[in-house]
Known about the structure:
6-stranded mixed β-sheet, 6 strands
Amino acid sequence: MVTNNNLTDRQRVRLAQLAYQQWHLGEKVYLDRGWYYLGKVEQIIHREDALHLTVVVNRQANEASLLFRGSTGIISGGRDNWVKQWLRTNFPVGSDIITGERDIPDQLLSASKVLNELMQEYPTTKFWLYGHSLGSINAQYALADCRFPQQLAQSFLYEGPNIYWLLSAEQRKRALQIRC
Protein backbone atom coordinates (compact mmCIF):
# COMPACT_ATOMS: atom_id res chain seq x y z
CA MET A 1 0.00 0.00 0.00
CA VAL A 2 1.30 3.44 -0.93
CA THR A 3 1.06 6.11 1.75
CA ASN A 4 2.22 9.70 1.89
CA ASN A 5 5.13 8.50 3.99
CA ASN A 6 6.44 6.39 1.07
CA LEU A 7 6.39 9.15 -1.56
CA THR A 8 9.50 10.56 -3.17
CA ASP A 9 10.16 14.30 -3.31
CA ARG A 10 9.19 14.33 -6.98
CA GLN A 11 5.87 12.60 -6.20
CA ARG A 12 5.16 15.12 -3.43
CA VAL A 13 5.71 18.01 -5.85
CA ARG A 14 3.35 16.28 -8.30
CA LEU A 15 0.76 15.83 -5.57
CA ALA A 16 0.92 19.56 -4.76
CA GLN A 17 0.38 20.29 -8.47
CA LEU A 18 -2.76 18.13 -8.46
CA ALA A 19 -4.47 20.87 -6.45
CA TYR A 20 -4.98 22.71 -9.76
CA GLN A 21 -6.86 19.80 -11.34
CA GLN A 22 -10.64 19.82 -11.49
CA TRP A 23 -11.61 16.95 -9.21
CA HIS A 24 -15.00 15.32 -8.57
CA LEU A 25 -16.29 13.87 -5.33
CA GLY A 26 -15.49 10.17 -5.06
CA GLU A 27 -12.81 10.34 -7.74
CA LYS A 28 -9.74 8.19 -7.08
CA VAL A 29 -6.39 9.96 -6.96
CA TYR A 30 -3.37 8.25 -8.47
CA LEU A 31 0.24 9.26 -9.03
CA ASP A 32 2.71 8.14 -11.68
CA ARG A 33 0.24 7.19 -14.38
CA GLY A 34 -1.95 5.16 -12.08
CA TRP A 35 0.73 3.17 -10.31
CA TYR A 36 0.17 4.68 -6.89
CA TYR A 37 -3.31 5.04 -5.40
CA LEU A 38 -3.47 7.77 -2.75
CA GLY A 39 -7.15 7.83 -1.89
CA LYS A 40 -10.51 9.28 -2.91
CA VAL A 41 -11.64 12.87 -3.12
CA GLU A 42 -13.99 13.19 -0.15
CA GLN A 43 -14.41 16.97 -0.14
CA ILE A 44 -13.85 19.87 -2.48
CA ILE A 45 -13.93 23.10 -0.55
CA HIS A 46 -14.58 26.43 -2.30
CA ARG A 47 -15.03 29.37 0.01
CA GLU A 48 -16.41 32.80 -0.86
CA ASP A 49 -12.95 34.28 -0.26
CA ALA A 50 -11.57 32.05 -3.10
CA LEU A 51 -9.96 29.44 -0.81
CA HIS A 52 -9.81 26.19 -2.78
CA LEU A 53 -8.92 22.93 -1.08
CA THR A 54 -9.23 19.31 -2.19
CA VAL A 55 -9.43 16.67 0.55
CA VAL A 56 -8.14 13.23 -0.48
CA VAL A 57 -8.72 10.51 2.11
CA ASN A 58 -7.14 7.07 2.23
CA ARG A 59 -9.18 5.20 4.82
CA GLN A 60 -6.99 2.12 4.72
CA ALA A 61 -3.89 4.16 5.62
CA ASN A 62 -5.93 6.47 7.91
CA GLU A 63 -4.53 9.59 6.30
CA ALA A 64 -5.83 12.68 4.53
CA SER A 65 -3.95 14.69 1.92
CA LEU A 66 -5.04 18.32 1.84
CA LEU A 67 -4.29 19.96 -1.50
CA PHE A 68 -4.31 23.75 -1.09
CA ARG A 69 -4.64 25.38 -4.51
CA GLY A 70 -2.53 28.39 -5.34
CA SER A 71 -3.48 31.49 -7.29
CA THR A 72 -5.03 31.31 -10.70
CA GLY A 73 -4.67 33.82 -13.47
CA ILE A 74 -7.35 36.19 -14.64
CA ILE A 75 -8.04 33.99 -17.67
CA SER A 76 -8.17 30.60 -15.93
CA GLY A 77 -9.67 31.81 -12.66
CA GLY A 78 -11.91 34.59 -13.81
CA ARG A 79 -11.99 38.20 -12.67
CA ASP A 80 -13.72 37.48 -9.35
CA ASN A 81 -11.14 34.87 -8.28
CA TRP A 82 -8.32 37.09 -9.48
CA VAL A 83 -9.56 39.97 -7.34
CA LYS A 84 -10.00 37.75 -4.27
CA GLN A 85 -6.71 35.91 -4.72
CA TRP A 86 -4.42 38.71 -5.83
CA LEU A 87 -5.90 42.03 -4.69
CA ARG A 88 -7.37 40.80 -1.41
CA THR A 89 -4.80 38.13 -0.44
CA ASN A 90 -1.46 37.94 -2.28
CA PHE A 91 -0.72 41.67 -2.53
CA PRO A 92 -1.74 42.42 1.09
CA VAL A 93 0.39 39.50 2.38
CA GLY A 94 3.37 40.77 0.39
CA SER A 95 2.83 44.31 1.61
CA ASP A 96 2.52 43.17 5.23
CA ILE A 97 5.74 41.16 4.98
CA ILE A 98 7.56 44.24 3.67
CA THR A 99 6.02 46.78 6.07
CA GLY A 100 5.83 44.55 9.15
CA GLU A 101 2.12 45.16 9.55
CA ARG A 102 -0.16 42.31 10.54
CA ASP A 103 -3.47 42.47 8.68
CA ILE A 104 -4.43 38.84 7.98
CA PRO A 105 -6.56 38.40 4.83
CA ASP A 106 -9.85 36.49 5.06
CA GLN A 107 -8.55 33.63 2.91
CA LEU A 108 -5.84 32.76 5.45
CA LEU A 109 -8.35 32.87 8.30
CA SER A 110 -10.63 30.63 6.26
CA ALA A 111 -7.80 28.12 5.64
CA SER A 112 -7.16 27.90 9.38
CA LYS A 113 -10.83 27.39 10.16
CA VAL A 114 -11.19 24.68 7.51
CA LEU A 115 -8.13 22.75 8.72
CA ASN A 116 -9.40 22.71 12.29
CA GLU A 117 -12.90 21.67 11.17
CA LEU A 118 -11.47 18.82 9.08
CA MET A 119 -9.37 17.61 11.99
CA GLN A 120 -12.48 17.54 14.18
CA GLU A 121 -14.38 15.71 11.45
CA TYR A 122 -11.63 13.07 11.07
CA PRO A 123 -10.30 12.82 14.66
CA THR A 124 -8.12 9.72 14.21
CA THR A 125 -6.70 10.68 10.82
CA LYS A 126 -3.17 11.91 10.14
CA PHE A 127 -3.04 15.00 7.92
CA TRP A 128 -0.55 15.70 5.14
CA LEU A 129 -0.66 19.24 3.77
CA TYR A 130 0.44 20.20 0.26
CA GLY A 131 0.41 23.68 -1.22
CA HIS A 132 1.95 25.77 -3.95
CA SER A 133 2.17 29.57 -4.07
CA LEU A 134 -0.97 30.97 -2.42
CA GLY A 135 -1.75 27.39 -1.35
CA SER A 136 1.54 27.43 0.56
CA ILE A 137 0.60 30.70 2.28
CA ASN A 138 -2.80 29.32 3.30
CA ALA A 139 -1.30 26.07 4.59
CA GLN A 140 1.39 27.93 6.57
CA TYR A 141 -1.21 30.04 8.32
CA ALA A 142 -3.48 27.04 8.96
CA LEU A 143 -0.57 25.11 10.46
CA ALA A 144 0.36 27.97 12.77
CA ASP A 145 -3.26 28.17 13.94
CA CYS A 146 -3.81 24.40 14.22
CA ARG A 147 -5.64 23.28 17.38
CA PHE A 148 -4.88 19.58 16.84
CA PRO A 149 -1.12 19.35 16.17
CA GLN A 150 -1.07 15.68 17.17
CA GLN A 151 -2.96 14.93 13.94
CA LEU A 152 -0.35 16.56 11.71
CA ALA A 153 1.92 14.23 9.79
CA GLN A 154 3.95 16.51 7.51
CA SER A 155 3.54 19.41 5.14
CA PHE A 156 5.13 20.09 1.78
CA LEU A 157 4.79 23.71 0.74
CA TYR A 158 6.31 25.05 -2.45
CA GLU A 159 7.12 28.47 -3.92
CA GLY A 160 5.35 30.58 -1.35
CA PRO A 161 6.78 33.34 0.83
CA ASN A 162 7.60 32.68 4.47
CA ILE A 163 4.76 34.28 6.46
CA TYR A 164 6.34 33.74 9.89
CA TRP A 165 6.54 37.50 10.50
CA LEU A 166 2.77 37.84 10.01
CA LEU A 167 2.00 35.41 12.83
CA SER A 168 1.06 36.34 16.38
CA ALA A 169 3.46 35.39 19.19
CA GLU A 170 1.33 32.34 20.02
CA GLN A 171 1.21 31.25 16.37
CA ARG A 172 4.99 31.69 16.04
CA LYS A 173 5.49 29.48 19.07
CA ARG A 174 3.23 26.79 17.58
CA ALA A 175 4.95 27.04 14.19
CA LEU A 176 8.32 26.51 15.82
CA GLN A 177 7.00 23.52 17.79
CA ILE A 178 5.59 21.73 14.75
CA ARG A 179 8.33 22.79 12.33
CA CYS A 180 10.35 19.61 12.67
